[in-house]
Amino acid sequence: MLQPTLNLDGAGLSAEALIEIARNRAHVELCPSSRDLLCATRAYIEKQWLNDTAPLMYAFNTGVGSLKNRRIGSDDISSFQRNLIRSHSASTGERMPSEVVRAMMAIRANAFASNHSGVRVEIVDRLLAMLNHDIVPVIASKGSVGASGDLAPLAIMSAALMGLAESEVEFQGEIVAASAAFEQVGLPATMDVHAKDATALINGATASLAYAVLAAYDARTLLADATISLSMSLEALRGELSCFEDRAMLARPHVGQRRVAAAIRGILLGTERCTEAARRTSLEGAGGQAESTNEPRIQDAYSLRCAPQVYGPVLDALDYIDSILLTEMNSATDNPLIFLDEHGEYDVVSGGHFHGQYVAQAMDLLALVVTDLGAICDRRTARLIDPACSFGLPTNLIAERAGINTGFSVVQSMGTGLVLENVALCSPASTISLPAKGNTEDHVSNSCFAARRSRTIVQNTQAIVAAEMLVAAQALDLSIPYLQGYPLGRGTTAALSTIREKIPATLGDDRWVHDDIEAVRAMVVEGSFRRAVEAVCGPIFASPEVRL
Q1: Is the separation of the CB atoms in 203 and 148 below 8 Å?
Q2: In 10 A of CB 548, how many CB atoms?
Q3: DSSP assignment of 199-263
Q4: Quick one: pLDDT at residue 386?
Q5: What is the pLDDT of residues 344-356, one digit of tens each?
Q6: Where are the alpha helices (DSSP H) in 276-356?
Q7: What pLDDT was estimated at residue 241?
């Protein structure tokens, strides 16, 4: 099957397209009109500016940072650009994930396609060739302050593009020298950088943005899974559903809150498990304490009843975050920028589009809302294993031989451990600024850490949601003999079936739960539950006009 081809023009890159490039290795090309503009701009630069009589232009014929007033002679410009890559390769720590590096290369190429950077078109072609041949630079992830962009990771990416002897790439499942990978695919083993090439390559918070787009995309899909796990817990605890009615939502009509309530109603359509008759049915004999069948349940705990009020802000925040990231993906972010005036002449403007504060603050918000999302999911999981809160379900959801078997208590506490980690991680990163580079960068964004941290929080929360799904599925299975006359909703039926296709209920002795957790987490990451539910319910977060 042929991979789709995506054209980069500097203005039309979407998160979905970037995911296709980063994860599914979509083929990428430079838009022909962008190619023509790049070539025209570069021809002007080489004719008018690459000589010793040209005025001082930052990073063209001057040093950088505190050396901005040092003129670079035309004969030394290429050496200056090469040395810039070497001197800026100052990162450390674990490797950036390959999908993040691929996203970073695509974003950088798209920024150049906007024709404000003045790079040679050969630089863009080299980046796209690396993507299309899946030649992925090996880059250490830590050390960027997100001010003049993510200088260090972008410098290491650029060194691989150049085929420098120190550079390594991942290619065909192995770590090899960058030059060797290029030779294997029939490309020149090395290439040089000329005026503005290197400075444009390393300027911009592009590593931050790559982490951010992937994290925000995963957070949006995670919210759908968390709505499914919530619905399963509601049915396992036979919760009250009137609080999700649209008339209740309209009394406080936040858009996200209303959409979440509509999603819950859609997933639970057809349920009779969340009815007063089901709530009055005793589970005595399931191994738990007998439930009162006389008094009605008036209202549920906040982790159930207030889900739209907690999930809604997540959905609204994601809409805001996505708007920020979409603009960033289709922006020129290096310095200086080049503009064509009405007389057909080009001008250079020094500015600060490389600064990562937009990304950093968006990622602080993402960290905050996803941490809270994980926390409320974990509180429901805790209720499911606690006989004081679970309305007749057995302690720890043990099917038989309590004491000999321990059940799901540590599955739940794993979730609590991840919530605690998320809480420690979600402190604001964007407000932490220390001057760098001889006080030239006297305000920094800390965007790369903010985005890396947010990706970790999303991944932790995927496991928290997986734990709720696994525990809620066990609770639903234990109650089947006593509640057969009360069917589940159409969406939760699909979700439960999806789990049980791979993981049986624990109806005897304890199972090796590590593998079960990982299997469910993988299904969350891969979208298995979301696809199963949407196959019977339609889009989980349909527009208000569709579902409300």
Answers
A1: yes
A2: 14
A3: HHHH-BSHHHHHHHHHHHHHHHHHHHHHHHHHHHHHHHTT---GGGSHHHHHTS--HHHHHHHHH
A4: 95
A5: 889 888 888 888 8
A6: 276-279, 302-305, 307-329
A7: 96
- State the amino acid at position 356 in one-letter form: G
Q: Name the nearest CA neighbour of 489 among 540, 428, 415, 545.
A: 540
**What pLDDT, in 10s, does the model give residues 46-58?**
888 888 888 877 7
**496: Cβ–Cβ under 8 A, 6 or more apart, which residues?**
232, 473, 476, 477, 488
The architecture in CATH of the region 5-203 reads: Orthogonal Bundle (1.10)
Reported as a pLDDT band with limits 50, 70 and 90, residue 292 is very low
Residue 103 near residue 213, CB atoms below 8 Å: yes
Looking at residue 438, what is its pLDDT? Answer: 60
Helix axes 307-329, 206-236, angle to 10 degrees: 160
Single-letter code of the amino acid located at 223: L
pLDDT at 335 over 90: no
Task: Compute CA 459 distance to the chain's CA centroid, rounded to the nearest angstrom.
Answer: 9
Domain 213-313+381-547 in CATH 1.20.1050.10: no
CA angle 275, 272, 386 (to 5 degrees): 65
Q: By the 8 A CB rule, do 430 and 418 touch?
A: no
355 conformational bin, left if phi > 0, alpha if psi -120 to 50, beta if neither = beta
Catalytic residue among 44, 58, 346, 482: 58
Please say if 58 is a catalytic residue. yes
Chain position carrying tokens 């349920």: 271
CA-derived radius of gyration, the chain: 27
Please count the other Cβ atoms lying within 10 Å of the Cβ belonging to residue 259: 25
pTM value > 0.85: yes
Cα–Cα distance for residue pair 486/547, rounded to 1 Å: 25
**Strand 92-95 to strand 136-137: parallel, antiparallel, or no bridges (unpaired)?**
unpaired
For residue 247, give Cα distances in angstroms to 243, 265, 268, 542.
Answer: 9, 13, 17, 18
The span from the CA of 386 to the CA of 393, in Å, is: 8
Helix (H/G/I), strand (E/B), else coil: 23: helix
Specify the pLDDT at position 296.
73
How far apart are the C-alpha atoms of 72 and 57, rounded to whole Å? Answer: 10
Query: In which region does residue 59 sit, left (phi positive, over 0), alpha (psi from -120 to 50) or beta (all else)?
Result: left
> Which residues face 28 on adjacent strands?
6
3-class state of residue 53 by DSSP: coil
Question: Hey, where are the domains in the chain?
Answer: 5-203, 213-313+381-547
**The two structure tokens encoding residue 85:** 């890559």
Confidence of residue 102 (pLDDT cuts 50, 70, 90): very high
What separation, in Å, do the N-terminal and C-terminal C-alpha atoms of the chain show?
Answer: 39
